[in-house]
Amino acid sequence: MSSPDQDATAPQPDPKPDPQPAPQQESPWVFWRGVLITLGVALGVRQTVVEARYIPSGSMLPGLQLQDRLLVEKLTYRSRPPQRGEIVVFHAPHHFDPVLKPNHQAGPLRCLLVNLPLVNLVPGLQEPACDAYIKRVVAVAGDQVVINPRGEVMVNGQRLKEPYVSNYCPVDAQGMGPCRTLNATVPPGHLLVLGDNRGNSWDGRFWPGGAFLPESEVIGRAFWRFWPLGTAGELNSSDPLKPAKPASRLNRWLNWTRRGLGGYPGWMPCRHRPCQWKPAG
């Protein structure tokens, strides 16, 4: 028989724990809000700071090859106009040419959608007025410019030094050819832009409404090629009327590594390049 003291100290059964509250499900809006914020920031950077573009045609050969990937920055021209020798991306002539524009109307929203990745693959959405062109500035406002049948350019009485041009327009024995000539003064607020592939470029020489590009139609300045890695580097944008500037330190380093490693930068992993040493040619 147990004593009263033992009964008093007998272990008592543990009380049942309080039930845990069921975990609340996260609202789907939290995920989509993050997606929308990310897209908004990306689009904002793309529209106002910098964006990637690719070369869709051969009008800038041989310096810019088809499918080269470039960076186009949009801050420089807020403080100054484009200069000779710079490579600019601009709205297609169908967006501003008085002869072409009436047949190619497109609002800003449509052009925004057309230029989005994957969305631009939707059939029937393409519109020439939403395209972007890339050319080199050869003359600026106030310049007196003369272009001969071969596509050679004189500005203010001086022949442009254009080492990036190797394919001029063909001419016959009389000096005539398929390319149009020009003798005019660039009006205020405008530019004259030509393709480096002078014999195969639809540029100001051929636009039906006039040869000159309004500065307001310029999207940005192409300054860096990031793909393919073997030719990555700063783009040549020196003024062809002035002495050539020395290459930047980064470009000199990239060129040095390419000469030593068979055309591939030295920092490129071996799985993406031949890893044997090749002497400079």
Could you list some keywords that capture this structure?
single chain, 281 residues, alpha+beta, 8-stranded antiparallel β-sheet, disordered C terminus
Parts with pLDDT < 50 across at least 5 consecutive residues: 266-281
Provide the residue-averaged pLDDT: 82
Percent strand equals 15-25%
E-strand count: 12
**Count, helices:** 4
Question: What string, H for helix and E for strand, traces the elements in order?
Answer: HHEEEHEEEEEEEEEH
Helical/strand content category = alpha+beta
Level of helix content?
10-25%
From the spread of the alpha carbons, the general shape counts as: elongated
Overall description:
The chain is of the alpha+beta class. 16% of the residues lie in helices and 20% in strands. It contains four helices and twelve strands, in the order ααβββαβββββββββα. It has helices at residues 4-8, 28-48, 108-114, 249-260, and strands at residues 50-54, 69-73, 87-91, 132-140, 144-147, 153-155, 158-159, 182-185, 190-194, 213-214, 218-227, 233-234. Strands 1, 2, 3, 4, 9, 10, 11 and 12 form an eight-stranded antiparallel β-sheet that branches. The chain has a four-stranded antiparallel β-sheet with strand order 7-6-5-8, with no helix packed on it. β6 (153-155) and β7 form a beta hairpin. The longest helix is centred in the N-terminal third of the chain and has 21 residues, at 28-48. The radius of gyration is 30 Å and the shape is elongated. It starts with a helix and ends in a 21-residue tail after the last helix. Residues 266-281 have low confidence and may be disordered.
